[in-house]
Design brief:
The complex is a heterodimer of chains A (about 325) and B (about 130). Chain A is mainly β and about 325 residues long. Helices cover about 10% and strands about 45% of the residues of chain A. With about 130 residues, chain B is of the alpha+beta class. The chains are: A mainly beta (about 325), B alpha+beta (about 130). At the A-B interface, strand 5, helix 3 and helix 4 of A face helix 1, strand 1 and strand 8 of B. Bound molecules: copper (II) ion.
């Protein structure tokens, strides 16, 4: 979700006269949130990018805080949001999700509004439990004008956006060195196309690519397979995450004193996840990579309920076929 | 309803479904190894006569098993893995003979009651 926040904030920030309208633009295409289990590997629902699988779960809430910057270097609006997402498996490898960046509010100036609703269909193309490897793809639609109306302080995008996504994950449980086994990496690559290129005022909606990755060192995995840890650490997964957005076409001409319209924005930072029996919580410090991305360290947080484990016989299983054959050898 | 009300109602409905199910369905999750005796990756004094594996969830005995081997790969005789009646998340395995000093590999596979499979292996060392 944070991609849109940053990408659009950049486009908006210069136009101080409509600053208030920007944070909405700032507000999120929320992303599917899911934890994924491939073989022995638990990939937590991560915050900058989505994890690489499908599951039955509810992310409520997802929280984001970031301070934007003005082109002259002064601090811009403080933006906050509370989002949600529900994901349902249709088969063990095909999931449908509905969610939203949810409620957004900002200070300097004060304003608030609701993000558009998004739907996503995600499919696991291939996985190998023994190698803890998985590849998935998704199509996401953010539906224009389903959030706050154009008359609101923070209106939602009046146009829809279609995003094509590719995901991959790999755990290093098959590494020969014990200390490498807890490592895992995940990645996501997105291509976003606005359904309408031009706005009423003649401005353009850019096509963007977004790409991110997480490097995870799973103490949860280490405790089970390598070295028993004190109970306090057994369920933790520290990670480092990075996520970037680059506008690639339909770019407005650069104007002096503004951020360039083709500037890549993004955040990097450490995160920490706790894997409970039926839920997960995660926090991240997001460090903006440049002034177009923000001025200060922001924060992300997520609470994610594992419906497959909470209600395996009802809403937690796929509509068709056996539950989670992917976990089986 | 406007979209704000709609999202709120949708969220409530999901939350309600979640709550109802949480209370009505038996709750089982993936069984991962939480701790063991001898401990995962540990070095112990004296030969253990039994392995104890404690999982994060209750497990189904019929589909669960444990093997023990030396670091070189030779299988070690041992009893059948049995689930502790008073603690269904715990497996006990008696070892058939006194283990000589050295490193040993435990391989386990279990199924939690919701049919989720997990498996894995770990080492421990008997100190000389
Ligand atoms: Cu499970």
């Amino acid at each position: 979700m944070n991609r849109s926040l940053r990408g659009r904030a950049r486009l908006c920030a210069p136009r101080t006269s409509i600053l208030a309208a920007c944070a909405v633009l700032a507000a999120f295409a929320s992303q599917a949130r899911a934890h994924t289990i491939v073989g022995n590997r638990v990939f937590p629902a991560t915050q900058t990018i989505d994890d690489p699988g499908v599951n039955d779960e509810l992310s409520l809430p997802t929280f984001s805080y970031l301070t934007l910057a003005n082109p002259d270097g002064s601090p811009g609006p403080l933006t906050y949001s509370l989002g949600w997402e529900y994901m349902k498996t249709i088969t063990a490898d095909l999931g449908f999700s509905v969610g939203s960046g949810g409620y957004n509010w900002q200070q300097r100036p004060n304003a608030h509004g609701w993000s558009n609703i998004e739907t996503e269909l995600k499919y696991v193309i291939w996985q190998n439990p023994a190698a803890e490897s998985i590849i998935a793809t998704a199509v996401n639609v953010e539906w224009g004008n389903t959030g706050s109306p154009q008359s609101a302080e923070l209106p939602s995008d009046p146009f829809s956006t279609i995003t094509f996504k590719l995901f991959a994950g790999k755990g290093l449980g098959d590494a020969s060195a014990d200390w490498l086994k807890p490592l895992a990496i995940t990645g996501e690559y997105d291509f976003s196309v606005p359904a309408s290129t031009y706005n009423a005022d003649g401005s353009e909606n850019p096509t963007t690519i977004a790409y991110g990755a997480t490097l995870q060192y799973s103490l949860f995995y280490m405790n089970s397979y390598v070295q028993e840890l004190p109970w306090l650490f057994r369920r933790l997964i520290p990670a480092f995450e990075a996520d970037f957005t680059t506008p690639v076409s339909n770019l407005a001409p650069n104007t002096p004193g503004d951020f360039g319209t083709n500037v890549t924005t993004g955040v990097v930072g450490p995160s920490l996840y706790y894997i409970g029996q039926y839920f997960e919580v995660g926090v991240m410090a997001q460090v903006p990579i440049n002034s177009a991305s923000g001025t200060h360290i922001g924060a992300l947080a997520i609470v994610d309920f594992f419906l497959d484990d909470i209600a395996p016989n009802s809403i937690g299983k796929p509509l068709f076929g056996p539950p989670q054959p992917r976990g089986h050898y | 309803m406007n979209i704000r009300a709609k999202s709120f109602v949708a969220a409530l409905a999901v939350a309600a479904a979640f709550n109802v199910s949480a209370f009505n369905a038996p709750a089982w999750a993936h069984a991962f190894l939480d701790h063991a005796v001898p401990a995962v990756g540990s070095s112990v004094q004296g030969a253990p006569r039994e392995l104890t594996l404690n999982f994060t969830e209750n497990i189904a005995p019929a589909f669960s098993g444990v093997t023990l081997a030396s670091a070189a790969g030779g299988a070690i005789a041992k009893g059948k893995a049995r689930v502790d009646p008073s603690s269904p998340a715990t497996l006990h395995v008696s070892i058939g003979r006194k283990l000589a000093p050295g490193t040993y590999v435990v391989r386990w596979h279990v199924v939690s009651v919701d049919t989720h499979h997990t498996s894995g292996s770990y080492k421990f060392t008997v100190a000389p």
